[in-house]
Design goal:
This protein is of the alpha+beta class and 101 residues long. It contains 2 helices and 5 strands, in the order ββββααβ. The strands form 2 sheets. A 3-stranded antiparallel sheet has the order 2-3-4. It has a two-stranded antiparallel ribbon with strand order 1-5. The longest helix is centred in the middle third of the chain and has 10 residues.
Amino acid sequence: MYCDIIKEGDFMFIRVTKSPTAKYKKVYLVEGYRDENGKSKQRIIKCYGNLEELEANDPDILQKLKDSAKLITKNQVNLTLNLSDSNDDMEIDKNYGYFFS
């Protein structure tokens, strides 16, 4: 069973991070928004993976991701969940809880 979710936010952008002990830079789609008290917050919507691996397949990928993040209509993210998937065989648990808050 699949479930489509559309989540609206204030703006979307691409974040590239590297921790001090990490070998690779990670690329994320991030949503910036304000909470009910007006405080600015951010949450990761999607991890695209390692920047070095993405650029090996497409040298212009970072700019393309940045451009696509700006074009998300009304800052909507469409997410399709396979509700029959189990976390039992996953390395990392899936957590979509913030979409339902």
